[in-house]
């Protein structure tokens, strides 16, 4: 029989049910990062219950709760946040990064991801957004000022130019000191294809200039030998690991669109005199041109009288006023620009994910008729089959076209030199000449008039002076033609199989291949090459890698073990076909088949390295870690010789080991120490240890019979890679919940058995051989301070400061030699040398002769030079640093980066020439109506001399000093620059929700906006004509520095 429930119980249960229903509610909202980026996969749970939800790819969630309950929002790498439910049905949450947690994973050698707290060496990771906010065409330049111990040189060599990155000092005397670049585990050839030197050339770009910044997830800098030891002979200069973006689990297909436009303008730092014009001294009197012949002969001299506005003849066939014509830099240089459009699609279900992107860059140079275009396509996929097998693949393709890369240093093709050479009374627009052929002799100018100006008959270039080696800025820009087209593919495929939850095997195939077609033309009619010349080359470079490894990762109580062993097979190939000719059979038909004298060349090389490697890391209680690695490389270029490269190190998280003893303000503390040996192959290439021979073309000998050694350098089969040994210690601290941090490091590095070319007795039949000699040391401190002084409500302020010192010394060179000469300056008054007991790259040069500490002059007051090259400067900065600030308020963001270098010197050929030609502010001293020029010292006989020079003597003084003395033009190359400024706004979620998009941000950006401090007149302190080799610290009419400013738009759908 069924019992009836009493009426009063029914009534009570009904009341309770109604009350519960009244208290239950549905809460929705969005969880984002500090910058407003939605967070996918955030755990949203009701504290004390099993009730929970997870945010979707838009950061949105929905959960049923009861008023008064507490919701916990938690996500790996962020501080968890608790919110008590009130009456609101919508709760939006911003999670702050958990700066005190150093358990983040970073990509290390061989693409292996490791827990940062276990690392025994210094590693710095730079987020990909730093390369897209205010972008550079070359990614390397964007690292300026961001990483302690990384010295970035980015001279102004035009769009698509290369960058020079040195980590912890120069380690080889031959100049091959740039790090290894690795893209998603694939080694990339970053050869700098420029050929600039004292006699001119151009910057041909490098591998980094082919990468699309929008594809970059992060860049990790492995600074020490221990960090790079697993790369063996290739890791001696450090490693830069580039990780590209990949697809992740999300709902639907995500679309990212980016638009970036920046204008580029010259940062004119010249300060030339504007009071005296073209002319020379005649019979002791400053004289302006009175004939076309004088106008031509004095076209390179600014030693005329003061401007008076009178009409004077010119080589252009017309008279012009003898007065200051204005700033020719502003007239000649254009406003360049770079427009980038990029789109990316990504998606996946967690098992199969993909990402594909397309980017297009169109840029124009400040130099007329020059530019750089690049198209990038990428595709990546990763798939998981079952619970054990993971397959991934990636391909990056780039297509570059560089039009008329600017010529630099001493070259008639260097338009910047032609601009500087003009006297102040000449308007550069008068040198445009033929409107249909800029820079050429116009039809309206009679040949006899032009010839009377000193030019040889048949010369087509319009010039303002009779200097045979001179040029015309417009002729250089429009008639000199060079084009470089490069197609590059970087691809890899990887397979990983998890045998158990602690044991796995992994294999990877990869290739980096690029094809370059280069064409160059010196036009017929150029002053120093009347007949003109042409050249073409076709170059293929390829590197293939096969990797396999087996790994183990498990925990046994308090003991953790992470180990792997594997092997690598690397193969490289280089092939080039070239052709050149000079003199054209059909006048002005500039084609190779029209050249009278033609030459052809062919180059080929291939090499390989077979390697085995291993790593073992043992941890105790997640605060003490010991790691050992080893790699053995077997080289084809060393006739199969193999060399072992070991490393050991440890880290101790003492804040976890002694939790109870730590003060409340100490969040984290770690000590690290390591020792490692790695290799440095330097300039050692294929066939340098085996004697090459040329093939016979004698019809009386057997066809293709080896006939003669085709090199003046005899091979040395006993040469080895140089050896770099480094010890590193460091301290990593975090305070006040990670709001403040301090990372200190010290390294002591030594290179032994460097690879150099040594002269030998010519009686051997050769001039030189390759030997292992020399020793070089680097010691330095690195300092990184990070802080979040303010993080309150909608406002935050983040700051980081990095500083690094480097003390370098050349300990020994070739036996019997105390110095090694390197690059020479164009003025032929200075030279870079390595000198025993001195730092790497000492600037030596001609100085003024001294007697008992007194400068020596002739009786007419001219400086007497000491023809011995003396030490006058150091080309490498001793201290580098960067200051980065970021302010965020609601959707607004303001950030700036200050970059600085101190302690290096530079020899300026530009300033030297400006004094010699009478165009500089210095050259005003001693002229009519100007401050007198007084010299004080001794005569060549040692007699005291104190003489105030006449204006004509002052002219001779500046000509002498500018033409013969390097020491007077050594400047401190220290600088402080506002490297980057970004002001951005990200639309609020409420606004974006009314559009089809998920996120919209707009930024105003600027790069290299201001030089806050420098000590060198007229030019930028980073001026140089090359990033190739070790001959830094020399400058000669480098392109003007530039500043860029523009806008960036990013939309996510």
From TrEMBL:
Gene3D superfamilies, per database record: Carboxypeptidase-like, regulatory domain, TonB-dependent receptor, beta-barrel domain, TonB-dependent receptor, plug domain
**InterPro entries registered for this protein in UniProt:** Beta-barrel_TonB_sf (IPR036942), CarboxyPept-like_regulatory (IPR008969), Plug_dom (IPR012910), Plug_dom_sf (IPR037066), TonB-dep_OMP_SusC/RagA (IPR023996), TonB-dep_OMP_SusC/RagA_CS (IPR023997), TonB-dep_rcpt-like (IPR039426)
How far does the signal peptide extend, from start to end residue? 1-22
Pfam families according to UniProt: CarbopepD_reg_2, Plug
Where does it live in the cell? Cell outer membrane
Indicate the principal place this protein occupies in or around the cell. Answer: membrane
| Cellular component terms (Gene Ontology) | cell outer membrane
The UniProt keywords, alphabetically, are: Cell outer membrane, Membrane, Signal, Transmembrane, Transmembrane beta strand, Transport
Which molecular function terms from Gene Ontology are attached?
siderophore uptake transmembrane transporter activity
Q: How does it sit in the membrane?
A: Multi-pass membrane protein
Tell me, what is an example of a GO biological process annotation in this record? siderophore transmembrane transport
Residue stretches making up the TonB-dependent receptor plug domain:
116-239
The similarity annotation says: Belongs to the TonB-dependent receptor family.
This chain's protein is named SusC/RagA family TonB-linked outer membrane protein
- Source organism: Arcticibacterium luteifluviistationis
Q: What is the lineage of its organism?
A: Bacteria, Pseudomonadati, Bacteroidota, Cytophagia, Cytophagales
